[in-house]
Specification:
7-stranded mixed sheet; 2 domains; 11 helices; Aspartate Aminotransferase, domain 2; 37% helix; alpha/beta; 4-stranded antiparallel sheet; single chain; Aspartate Aminotransferase, domain 1
């Protein structure tokens, strides 16, 4: 009898009871706005920012409305102007080139390796020829490149690094938290990320100038002294009258929901990685299937899984995706000509100048992806791997 998986790939765990209790407290007193506090109470947003700074080891942190806002705010804080060119991965998601385009800048895509990370050789070429001052680096689907080599390259080229850590909050490279190699780290708390407030995000940095600009941009209304994970007041003095207000700091309700989740994240990472390893073990040594190799210097958060089918053409991959879906396993294919949900790619974004990335095209042509929500068990992941193996065997 053919088995069918009955779980849901888009169903997250409920908000923890501590988060619900904290949210109800905010709802009952009604002080949702980030600066609506009584007396000397700091407010949930300010407390969350302190906790994010401690979690990442950063001097400063700012909680904002979304991961996309975090990236746009970071670019503005670095003074990126209309018409400038900004480097980014060829393999990324739409909010990344969207953030670049939102400030009037021009995305310059960099090739992708078979490890799903940015191609450092192509990055070196484009850093030398593009005139770009900034790299907006995606750790796409949780894959982190050699950050030591990347930072040496960028430092030598005079390119500042913003890390998009939407898929790597809690991950590390060489023992250093993701987001702490570059000048600025940006994170997302959208529902499908590692902590969930529906939408939301963070910026972290050790630069007083950068974070003062970001706080003013986020709509501080000259109340920057009420931020706890912020630079000292003197860092704002020469900026406060020349930095526009583009309101986007997180509200107290979402911060209240997130604080218990941030505290639980280390334990959740252990659970995610058990799911990831169950799929990895289940698909290992499967003929016709290539698992993405992980560098031992990388400490992952296995909230999604990717693999390639390098011997299959597009029609057969479409058959594979359909066959797995019929058995309850939802795979996303990055090689489709037309974007489907979040699987759009660099040549889907017509607001960016047309570019050709042949190496990235080859990698994405046979790349499949699936979420691993914590509503799954290890037993579920064993079954999912068995279904993928079985359907692949039928097609090869």
């Amino acid at each position: 009898m053919t088995s069918r998986f009955t779980g849901t790939f888009t169903q997250q765990e409920p908000i923890p009871e501590a988060g619900i209790t904290a949210a109800l407290k905010v709802l009952r007193h009604g002080r949702l706005h980030r600066y609506n506090t009584l007396g000397d109470e700091p407010g949930e947003t300010a407390l969350l920012e302190e906790e994010v700074a401690a979690f990442t080891g950063a001097k400063y942190a700012l909680a904002v409305a979304s991961g996309g806002y975090a990236m746009g705010c970071a670019l503005r804080a670095l003074g990126i102007e209309p018409g400038e060119r900004v480097l980014l991965n060829g393999f990324t998601l739409a909010p990344v080139p969207g953030a670049i385009t939102s400030v009037g800048a021009e995305p310059v895509f960099v090739e992708t390796t078979e490890a799903l990370t940015i191609d450092l050789a192509d990055l070196a070429r484009k850093a030398a020829t593009s005139g770009a001052r900034v790299l907006l680096l995606s750790h796409m689907r949780g894959h982190i490149c050699d950050m030591g080599a990347l930072m040496r390259l960028c430092d030598q080229a005079g390119v500042r690094v913003i890390e998009d850590c939407a898929h790597t909050m809690g991950a590390r490279w060489g023992g250093v938290p993701s987001g702490r190699h570059g000048l600025i780290g940006c994170y997302s708390t959208q529902t499908y990320k590692h902590i969930n407030s529906g939408e939301g995000g963070f910026l972290v940095s050790d630069s007083a100038d950068v974070m003062a600009r970001a706080i003013l941009l986020s709509g501080s209304y000259m109340l920057y002294s009420r931020h706890h994970a912020a630079p000292p007041p003197e860092a704002f003095e020469c900026l406060k009258l020349t930095t526009p207000n583009i309101s986007g700091r997180m509200d107290n309700l979402r911060a209240a929901i997130l604080r218990p989740q941030l505290a639980d994240l280390p334990a959740q990472i252990v659970r995610w990685n058990a799911l990831y390893r169950a799929v990895e073990d289940g698909l290992g040594h499967t003929p016709g299937l290539a698992i993405i190799k992980r560098d031992p210097r990388e400490s992952i958060v296995g909230s999604s899984f990717q693999f390639r089918l390098p011997r299959m053409g597009p029609e057969t991959i479409q058959e594979m995706v359909a066959a797995c879906l019929a058995r309850g396993v939802e795979l996303k294919w990055f090689g489709a000509k037309e974007p489907v949900a979040f699987t759009s790619r660099y040549d889907s974004w017509h607001y960016a100048p047309k570019q050709r990335l042949p190496k990235t095209d080859r990698v994405l042509a046979d790349l499949l992806d699936m979420r691993l929500p914590l509503t799954f068990s290890v037993k579920d992941c064993v079954q999912i791997a068995a279904i993928i193996r079985d359907e692949l065997r039928k097609l090869t």
